[in-house]
Write a structure and sequence with these properties.
alpha/beta, Rossmann fold, 2 domains, 4-stranded antiparallel beta sheet, 25% strand
């Protein structure tokens, strides 16, 4: 088992954001978290990455407890997060953003040649980034910035990739391209992916398994194929008035 959360409770001040959340990921799996806004999906990612530490419970990576580690130590262990809203460094070029993703590797005095080889692999995954390698990130489209945010996370050479709403605000063709890259990362590199996604149908089509969250609790879990047909998933994610969106 690559990652296991056991009875995790996370707080924002007095607000109890995650309530005894338990989930797991095996190596090479794509697992998705779905649920309404405010259900706790982003908080799970932030808890795993150490940005919002758990108040109680166990967070195990390769069976070792990591809940007390700082975010940079989490990245060093092999966990990278692509944040919601992309959050690229807009005044910097594509190349500079990617190099920042390898910051810990530079700090550990890893050879520049291997880092630049990884950058070229990113350009193979996302050819549009290569075309814009000298362009300032802030002048690119939302889809290109999302590709850059994913590429930046990959520069840390993660074993586990956490993605927060990668399709948000993007055109369907761009979303399809990004999801194809995620499948490629799993099939060719054996990467494990934990995906938070409002486009629940697309996420479940990509994923092996899924968890449905509601008000900080896991209310359903199972194989993706089963969840996509589950009426409770439709209710928890979309609500009755938006059911028609799900059926498109």
């Amino acid at each position: 088992m690559l990652l296991r959360l056991k009875n995790i409770n996370t707080f924002y001040g007095k607000v109890h954001a995650l309530k005894n959340v338990s989930l797991h990921l095996a190596e090479g799996e794509i697992v998705t978290l779905i649920g309404a806004n405010g259900a706790g999906k982003t908080t799970i990612l932030n808890t795993i990455s150490g940005v919002t530490p758990a108040g109680s419970g166990d967070l195990l990576y390769h069976k070792e407890p990591v809940q007390a580690l700082a975010p940079d130590r989490i990245v060093k262990l092999g966990i990278s997060q692509v944040p919601e809203g992309r959050q690229v460094f807009k005044p910097l070029s594509v190349e500079d953003n990617l190099e920042l993703g390898a910051y810990l590797r530079y700090r550990n005095r890893e050879g520049k040649s291997s880092i630049h080889e990884d950058m070229e692999r990113i350009f193979t995954l996302f050819p549009r980034l290569e075309e814009r390698r000298k362009q300032l990130a802030g002048t690119m489209s939302g889809g290109e910035q999302q590709m850059l945010a994913i590429g930046r996370a990959l520069m840390a050479r993660p074993k586990l990739l956490l993605l927060d709403e990668p399709s948000m605000g993007l055109a369907p063709l761009v979303v399809q391209e990004i999801f194809c890259v995620l499948e490629q990362l799993r099939s060719e590199r054996g990467m494990t992916i934990l995906l938070v996604e409002q486009n629940a149908k697309a996420a479940l089509r990509l994923a092996d398994r899924g968890y449905v969250l509601e008000t900080g609790k896991v209310i359903l879990e199972g194989d993706a194929g089963e969840l996509i047909e589950n009426a409770e998933v439709k209710r928890a994610y979309l609500g009755k008035d938006k059911k028609e969106i799900w059926e498109r």
